[in-house]
């Protein structure tokens, strides 16, 4: 299997630049669009980092956030928005006016929209990586499908197999917060949804995923 992140760095940089341009083009944007662009301007891990920050505050496992927790989560990620804008965002996501929002629904709305064909190929890649079918990708899963032998840092002795595989996993974990070495299906999809935003052509996205994961 090729390193799936090789070609993604360029795509990610282009996407981040495009998001920054859109943020500063002077046009009014609804709260969801602004928050999405702020996350995209940080690259593929922007939305993931926000998701992890929220999950870290979900003490009771309810997957529900009140306004205070939402404000804290946005602040913790360092996104450049005012208190008033954060409250507007919360109100937009709190569609039923209950005073809380569901984290899963929130992240679904926040990530860039994707056609079903792209979701399908992302699911196929996750299923191939998740060898023991427990719903998360771990180092043990990776050892069965990802060879580090061609990795320059492995060849030079700079990093061990486990260190390289851990780095690979951290790409999907948002780069901050709980780096537990486990990728959930949601994190995997959110990562590639962000990459997908920088690729116009469905066939190219499909080809990129098939090459990366040898499907």
UniProtKB/TrEMBL annotation:
It holds the Pfam family EF-hand_7. Residues 45-80, 81-116, 117-152 form the EF-hand domain. Keywords: Calcium, Metal-binding, Repeat. InterPro entries: Ca-bind (IPR051581), EF-hand-dom_pair (IPR011992), EF_Hand_1_Ca_BS (IPR018247), EF_hand_dom (IPR002048). GO terms for molecular function: calcium ion binding. PANTHER family: CALCYPHOSIN (PTHR34524), CALCYPHOSINE LIKE (PTHR34524:SF6). This is GH22994p. Gene3D superfamilies: EF-hand.
